[in-house]
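Hi support team,

I've been running sequence recovery on a batch of backbones for a student project. Most finish fine, but this one hangs at about 90% for roughly twenty minutes before it completes. I'm not sure whether the input is malformed or the queue is just slow. I've pasted the structure tokens below so you can try to reproduce it. Let me know if you need the job ID as well.

Thanks,
M.K.
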């Protein structure tokens, strides 16, 4: 299995070589040269596997330069009951509508699912190569804490995580900034998430700086994360069906298009997925694309701070991987579109619009603050279950796309404890906080506050890199 770039300018490389890189050298994103296929018999033979063992099977399709027994050891460590007391449970809400519980890990958000594997595989590959790596990333909340919890104390890795100052919940801040491990560096930038991401892109795009400081990425463009996310679509399908060929739909609260991209790939691999329901909040660039065929990211000044903050994203960093498939895997076409995007601020694929649903199964909808509150309240009243604001966006949009006889799994992307303010506004009560996190708010915090300037960040990395 070799990997290529969506822009066609990279010699094919094995998994372990792309693992430690961010963008491909031509500015594109990496993808497998060809996608493995899953037939019905293979899927049926996986029904009784534990999550960790299923993960080793699925990831083994994408990783052939790590021995299967090493991979299995890593997935068993990443998905142990120490890390995930429960792993990806299906939680029924009402007939035909369930949550897929992806937020049972240390940071109470779905990003732990991929990141815990990434922590294992980074440490393994770095030790094997006798290398060090400095992770530079940007987070609007959950990526940062998931990365830090997966990499804290790991040998050979340091983390430099940029976050938008004052735009995360108190819980998210406490979660990240309370880590005292020497290899974890939190940098709060005066700006929005997209500006943090721009700084990361600038520094990672400076090839001299990048190689001098051995920069790597764990943002959602990292292929290993996408691969690890494919696992829970297979798992969710296995849990929601009894036999071959039965279809399931997934609803996905979306921001950077990483989570739902994994669903797209699972579907392309042959998992019987009917609809991929993309849910956005008020930052509805992706919803607009699926309704019009025009992709028009917005500037930072038009990116709203909402009550589902992890989806406050106006440029979806993984979208190019889907565009690559949409244009028939024609890398030169992708290059033209990305040039157009840079020059005109948008591109137009409306000619392909009929394929979005018919060929690829995508439908989309948006949710507002009022929708979020109403959905949290209604789900709580009807079922007794508390959901977080992001999951509420998913449930809101999923409800418009329910079909008789087709189970709908809404990906539960965070637990309500992370977003107490909104939960109180919706229900009048604070959500329960897991015992292990009761004293989180009292723990001392460690964070570097900086102006929105790539040079300041570069300077800090220079002084603290491994
Ligand atoms: C990251 C995140 C999302 C968005 O996922 P993408 O992969 O960026 O589309 C949604 N909800 C929560 C809680 C998140 O942390």
């Amino acid at each position: 299995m070799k990997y290529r770039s969506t822009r066609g300018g990279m010699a094919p490389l094995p998994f372990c070589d792309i693992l430690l890189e961010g963008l491909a050298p031509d500015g594109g994103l990496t993808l497998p040269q060809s996608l493995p296929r899953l037939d019905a018999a293979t899927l049926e033979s996986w029904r009784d596997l534990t999550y960790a063992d299923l993960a080793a099977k699925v990831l083994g399709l994408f990783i052939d330069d790590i021995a299967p027994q090493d991979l299995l050891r890593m997935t068993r460590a990443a998905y142990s009951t120490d890390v995930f007391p429960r792993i990806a449970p299906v939680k029924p809400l009402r007939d035909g509508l369930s949550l897929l519980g992806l937020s049972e890990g240390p940071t109470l958000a779905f990003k732990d699912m991929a990141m815990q594997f990434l922590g294992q595989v980074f440490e393994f590959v770095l030790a094997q190569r006798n290398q060090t790596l400095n992770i530079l990333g940007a987070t609007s909340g959950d990526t940062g804490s998931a990365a830090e919890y997966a990499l804290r104390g790991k040998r050979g890795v340091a983390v430099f995580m940029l976050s938008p100052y004052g735009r995360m919940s108190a819980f998210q801040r406490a979660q990240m900034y309370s880590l005292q491990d020497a290899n974890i560096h939190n940098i709060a930038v005066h700006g929005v998430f997209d500006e943090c991401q721009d700084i990361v892109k600038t520094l990672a795009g400076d090839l001299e700086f990048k190689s001098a400081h051995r920069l790597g990425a764990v943002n959602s463009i990292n292929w290993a994360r996408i691969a690890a996310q494919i696992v829970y679509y297979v798992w969710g399908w296995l849990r929601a069906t009894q036999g071959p060929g039965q279809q399931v739909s997934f609803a996905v609260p979306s921001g950077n298009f990483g989570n739902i991209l994994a669903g797209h790939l699972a579907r392309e691999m042959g998992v019987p997925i009917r609809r991929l329901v993309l849910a956005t909040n008020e930052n509805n660039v992706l919803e607009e694309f699926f309704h019009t065929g025009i992709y028009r990211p917005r500037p930072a000044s038009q990116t709203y701070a909402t009550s589902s903050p992890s989806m406050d994203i106006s440029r979806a960093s993984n979208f190019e991987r889907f565009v690559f498939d949409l244009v028939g895997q024609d890398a030169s076409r992708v290059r033209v579109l990305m040039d157009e995007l840079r020059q005109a601020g948008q591109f137009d694929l409306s000619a392909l619009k009929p394929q979005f649903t018919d060929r690829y199964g995508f439908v989309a909808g948006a949710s507002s603050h009022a929708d979020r509150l109403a959905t949290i309240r209604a789900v709580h009243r009807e079922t007794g279950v508390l959901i977080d604001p992001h999951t509420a966006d998913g449930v809101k949009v999923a409800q418009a796309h329910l079909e008789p006889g087709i189970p709908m799994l809404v990906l539960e992307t965070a637990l309500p404890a992370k977003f107490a303010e909104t939960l109180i506004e919706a229900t009048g009560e604070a959500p329960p906080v897991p015992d292990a996190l009761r004293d989180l708010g009292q723990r001392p915090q460690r964070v570097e506050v900086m102006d929105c300037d790539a040079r300041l960040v570069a300077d800090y990395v220079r002084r603290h890199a491994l």
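--
Follow-up from support: It reproduced on our side and the slowdown came from queue contention, not your input. The chain has a mean pLDDT of 95. No action needed from you.
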